Amino acid sequence: MNFLTEELEELHRKDLHRRMRRLDSPQGARTVIEGKECILLSSNNYLGLTEHPVVKEAAKLAVDNWGAGAGGSRLTTGNYALHEELEQEISHFKGTESAIVFGTGYAANLGVIQALAGRGDAVLSDELNHASIIDGCRLSQAGVKVYRHRDTEHLEEMLRQVQGYRRRLIVTDGVFSMDGDLAPLPKIAALAERYGAFVMVDDAHATGVLGGRGAGTVDHFSLEGRVQVQMGTLSKALGSSGAYVAGTHELIDYLRNMGRSFIFSTAPPPAAMGAALAAVRLVERQPEIRTRLWRNARYLRTSLDKMGYIVPAEDSPIIPVFIGDAAKTMYLSQALLEEGVFAPGIRPPTVPQGTSRIRVTVMAVHTREDLDQALSAFARAGKRAGIFS
């Protein structure tokens, strides 16, 4: 298998080789990376709930009451009352009739897209959708049309082209994970209604973050009843593990019967379900946590922009700091780590060529002192990397 060595060497030559960094402590505002304490600016733990005492206690209680594992798929022996309680809470939170939980967001997207679209159908997908959506489209064997990022005119052009297909599914991220920008969901919903399509939104990075209730992009844009499939994760702002799909009773019953990644997977473990249930209730009952998140995000974004970094004006806790060159991006990331800030570089193929960036994310639990210290590190590291003179 000499090709393994050759291809790994090629990745090194292109500055595209990846390695995992080991965390030696939980994901709070500050964490320990391979023995070094750092301000953490890369976690999707937006609300800081992985370390919230109520969430941790709920996970422990779930283990005490239900055991460490589920022991089987939901359709055999793995369907606990706790899973059903969480699904009921999610449907209430999302304002839908029903919900279903999956083991991961990746599994949810694969299972849902494959169940809802197949040969003779068309899936219309934003070009910057998450890899799990891309793979779900490929595996569905439907005709896949990729429209330019957030370009609803291009989407409409493609909708006209697929009118002869049996079904037409439009699928989009709600908040795009590498750019932090929002899908133009109101226009997408209107086009779906005009052309007889239905809409699926991946709210992985919007659940718990966006909307008056923190329920995601449908809540944010007041589109209740106009987006048929709402998917999201329990592993980001909700601080646990797993994913959900929310919609009508009919949709959820269909997915129980046709979603292969649901049918043929062991159910999510009780600890994760208990933690997620507590997290959803915290989001519903303590909006001040979300308020702190947005205050921190706006402060950090504005400050990086004033410093001279290239950051978009989008309003989300994901703040891409565009560098462009992959090697310079990784140098900056290492310089930040040496300054006590963990903010990994993102390179192709995760992002398009020439758009390498530091993907900064902020959390509700960051203090102003944390953010100011991180900004000072960005100023010094930027000079070392040749970004500033």
Residues in β-strands, percent: 15-25%
What is the average per-residue confidence, as pLDDT, rounded to a whole number? 95
So, CATH architecture of the largest domain?
Answer: 3-Layer(aba) Sandwich
Summed up, the domain count is 2
Low-confidence stretches: none
| H-E string | HEEHHEHEHEHEHEHEEHHHHEHEEEH
* Strand line-up of the largest beta sheet: 3-9-8-7-6-4-5
The total strand number stands at 13
Name of the CATH homologous superfamily of the largest domain:
Type I PLP-dependent aspartate aminotransferase-like (Major domain)
Sketch the major β-sheet.
7 strands, mixed
Indicate the percent of residues in helices: 40-55%
**How far from one another are the termini?**
46 Å
CATH topology of the largest domain: Aspartate Aminotransferase, domain 2
Q: Helix tally?
A: 14
Structure in a nutshell:
With 389 residues, the chain is of the alpha/beta class. The chain is 43% helix and 16% strand. The longest helix has 21 residues, at 287-307.
